[in-house]
Amino acid sequence: MAKRRKQKDEEEELDFKIPKFDEEKFIKRERRNIKTIFISFIFGIIMALICYGFFALMGPETPLRWPLVFIVMFFNMTFIRVFFEKLNIDLEDFGRKGWFTSIAIYSFTWMLIFVILINPPFYDESPPTIEIYTLPDMQEPGGDILIVAKVIDNSVLNKDNIIVDITHEDGYSLTGPDYDYQDGVLTYRFNNPEGLVGDFEIQIQATDGNGLSNISKTSFKYSNHTIKIPDPTGVDIYPGPNVGYASTIKFDVETKVDRLYYRINDQTKQINVTEKEGDFYVSYPKYEGWQKNQIVNMTVYADVILYFDVYSSRADIVDKENLVPYKNTIIDNQIYHFNTTNDDEIGSEDPPNVSLPEPKIVQIPGFEAVLFILSLLAVALIFKYKNKDKRR
What we know:
With about 400 residues, the protein is α+β, with helices and mostly antiparallel strands. The protein contains six helices and 21 strands. Helix 2 packs antiparallel against helix 3 and helix 2 runs parallel beside helix 5.
């Protein structure tokens, strides 16, 4: 029985014939495919140019121009078949794969060319971007304000394109100061030459090479009470109030600061103030730098620190140690006097540490991520077609 089945299988194998390869039909089909790819590619370029014209003519004020452009691109896909028929291309065995390939080439070509055309140097509708920071927002008379502004555009900007105006509420005005502008960052130290107190406004106007302009404003203030000690005051009272090692000294700071500290008797030792009780910072004479049984003088300082965000596709290659912050200091004009007791605990403890701001690394997608995704898609397609071949 097994022998008879084996003979039957051998006869069936002998009856199988390899189909004849039709070389002429194969060449004709491949030429047809090359033509359709080329036509789809050219049509994508033409439609990108047409859509770019519509996009530019509608202008940024048109709310629906992006949907309209995509609608034009989508509905003009139907003309691909018209072109094929006009050019007498045989579509008898074109199939879904052929139509998918043609539409994909048209769509990707359109997207690539259109994105290139709507960006500089071919097109620019975006005015410069301006971000203004004042370090600090409130300063004591005699101190300066560090003005830092990120002024950038998708085209080249220089100092001739940027105008700075500083005005005071009482009418004082400073136009076109000699600021520094490098790598898209404007910096200027305002020294308040008139010694004014009250509110100031700073305005920065930037105009790009296409005449697109943007204006940004912010304000800062000079006040004699930016920093003060409400309790115990230690002001205008000599030798000042009596304080022991556990006496609470409150600091009232009217603006946001990143570090508050003071010095005793003009020493180089800086005593950080980190604790807060309600609306006040607090410190104690127990910290090193204070001296017992003496009349001491206190000068108070505050630092304001700014880092711009660092955008990188790889956070591990950013050298944080060499990133220099923008920094300015508030110096309280008032000298405070205190009369310390004879407690041995005065000046016996280390001052507290303070955490300073650090640069923020913003992760952005890199080309390696795109390549990884494309690789996964390629592997998936390979396995898909392998499995299909096995089933055949």
